[in-house]
Write a structure and sequence with these properties.
mainly alpha; 163 residues
């Protein structure tokens, strides 16, 4: 049976961690932190953030980084909403910029883009800091349940055949 990219590159490696003695809770926390840190609204910073989190919290570095890479499109999608939420929260002037315009600015003149967008990025980061703990907790609880369930299915040969 041919398995999809998502299963081969994300699900299978996570399930393999269960056979290596990594607890379901550590796996779930690695995944939750990878997702939340992966959508940090400053492009180019998530790999270092995930590596630091893995070291500080003694999480599985490959798991957190794989998830980080998988949520990269989500990071791009959420940049503008984080900027808009920052404008709303801090009653800042509304920037007439789309993700495509931000990308074009960064490609053509990165120093100019940084000087123009640093305050918007700061406000977006502050919004992210407000919501990240709650999202992490929600994701952790849900993922811990799923990983524990997967671990119990993996241990039970009868259940494994049913899958």
């Amino acid at each position: 049976m041919k398995q999809g990219l998502f299963y081969r590159r994300l699900v299978r490696p996570v399930l393999a961690l269960l056979t290596q003695g990594v607890t379901p809770e550590k796996i779930a926390l690695s995944l939750a932190m990878g997702i939340v840190l992966g959508v940090f609204p400053v492009v180019g910073s998530t790999t270092l953030l995930c590596a630091a989190a893995a070291i500080v919290f003694r999480l599985n570095l490959p798991a957190i980084q794989v998830v980080n890479y998988f949520v990269y499109p989500l990071q791009l999608i959420l940049i503008v909403p984080f900027i808009r939420a920052g404008e709303f929260l801090f009653r800042a002037r509304h920037l007439q910029l789309s993700l495509a315009q931000i990308s074009a600015m960064a490609r053509t003149n990165l120093p100019h883009a940084i000087s123009l967008l640093w305050l918007a990025a700061l406000r977006a980061t502050l919004v992210w800091l407000l919501v990240a703990p709650f999202i992490t907790l929600i994701l952790y609880v849900q993922l811990a349940y799923l990983v524990r369930r997967a671990a119990s299915l993996k241990r039970s040969p009868q259940d494994a055949e049913a899958i």
